[in-house]
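Continuing the series of single-chain predictions for the mutant panel. This is the parent chain; the variants come on the following pages.
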Amino acid sequence: LVEEARSYISRGEQIRRHMLMLNSEGNSICVGTSEADKCRLLYDLWILFSQRQKGYTIQLLLIDGSPDSLHGGHLIESVRDGAPWQKDWEFLEICQVPVGCAVAKDHPCFGKNLITLSDMRRSGLIFIDRSHGENTAALLHKLQEEQIPYESYSEWTPSLIWECSMEKKMLLAPMCLQDVLHDVYLTPCVLQDTLPYGLFYHKNPPVPLQVFLDFVRELY
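Parent structure:
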């Protein structure tokens, strides 16, 4: 049964890729999306684009960051934080997203308007360094300089939110993730660091995507 199931899964994947290939030959753009990498800006951008360019369509592809799920997608809206999949994609920056501190509802700092250095020293930080210093070297240096205790992890896991809540620690994260970090609340902090936010796209984008990207560049 396992072998038979694998053959069905493989065939289903072939059909999905073929459909995406056919769509890419027309005026269709396939957008990869997930809970974290959702279309926060793309929806409004597409409305403006559609007012100027007629006949283009958009399709959504559910992704999870694995190479297989990314195959076939043309465009992904996300924070440029050094995730492994990002190194194979081009990036069009739209804005900078500030980094904040996520705290649980029973944390002593919950409800504050600004997290201070003293707050961070008392609680300690959980820090996701997926870029291995490429985008976060300055931030790491600042944490060390200010003697802020932190634990560094290479990837997001659900247990980090649990650890943040149970051990009364703070989680450093881009402020745009407030809509997906349901059990903690993101608060601005005095570090004033930011991460690039924008559109990831294939190095050889199809013509419809090139037209859309040119529109976004002109807009910004």
